[in-house]
Specification:
Helix content is 67%, strand content 0%. By secondary structure, it is an all-alpha fold.
Length: 255
């Protein structure tokens, strides 16, 4: 009979698995002669790269917060009548730093988005090996879920929850608190945060810029904590899959 796991190689005598599937191999390639549609591939390298980029995004947000505060301080002085060479130089510096922070945030966000989706695709494929029937959304939603209107509000979280449950090493799935924190912060940063950024873009006087900088600091603060929460999810889920793969496949009882 065929192996009940890979469905390609012959099962061992009086067993239900072939020799390759019965031997724990972690993230090794499929056994010679077998050609399953998917097999485990290590997410460790991608996970570390994603976490590093998210950490870089958090660092850029810290820089942006510093630029925001400088702009808040100098526009407050200008709005209060503080005019002079010193105030003008500080205003120019604040303007340059704010522009640099905005550009850096966009570039790092794009890099994070690309690497995060690649990592998510990898862990989703691994999760399909761990639990082929444990996913509510098709694999295409790993990418489409982020760009389809309305669906983007909850589909990515559903995809991550299914991967999390399939990758859990205990008798029951680990709790979803970390995922919920990350997803809540992400939604806040992408909805409320964007509204707050708009107020700064529309400000055209020192007083209005000064007033909008408080909102800018809130928006950048949301981005900061959302990036840190995302890094925590990436590292935790990567470690879960690594540990589960090293345990080896469970051997079904022969019938």
């Amino acid at each position: 009979m065929l192996c009940t796991r890979c469905l390609h190689a012959e099962a061992a005598p009086e067993g239900v698995l072939c020799a390759g599937c019965a031997t724990p191999t972690g993230f090794a390639a499929p056994p010679a002669g077998a050609a399953p549609k998917i097999w485990l591939r290590s997410p460790v390298g991608l996970g570390r790269a994603t976490a590093i980029l998210l950490g870089l995004a958090a660092a850029v947000d810290v820089f942006a917060l510093g630029a925001d505060y400088l702009m808040y301080d100098v526009t407050g002085d200008l709005a209060g009548g503080g005019i002079g060479a010193g105030a003008g130089d500080r205003a120019d510096l604040a303007d340059r730093l704010t522009a640099a922070a905005g550009s850096a945030q966009v570039l790092v966000m794009l890099a994070c988005a690309v690497v995060f989706v690649i990592w998510l695709w990898r862990v989703r494929r691994n999760a399909e090996v761990f639990a082929p029937d444990g996913h509510h959304k098709a694999r295409a939603w790993v990418i489409a879920g982020w760009v389809v209107p309305i669906a983007s509000l909850w589909y990515p979280r559903r995809v991550v929850v299914d991967i999390w449950d399939a990758s859990s090493t205990g008798d029951k799935p680990d709790g979803h608190a970390l995922i919920n924190i990350w997803w809540t912060l992400w939604l806040l940063s992408q909805t409320i945060g964007q509204v707050l950024y708009t107020a700064f873009d529309e400000a055209d006087t020192s007083q209005r810029i000064h007033d909008s900088m408080t909102q800018m600091m809130v928006a950048d603060g949301l981005d900061l904590v959302a990036a840190l929460a995302a890094a925590a999810v990436v590292l935790r889920l990567t470690r879960m899959q690594d540990e589960k793969a090293r345990q080896g496949p469970p051997v079904p009882v022969a019938v």
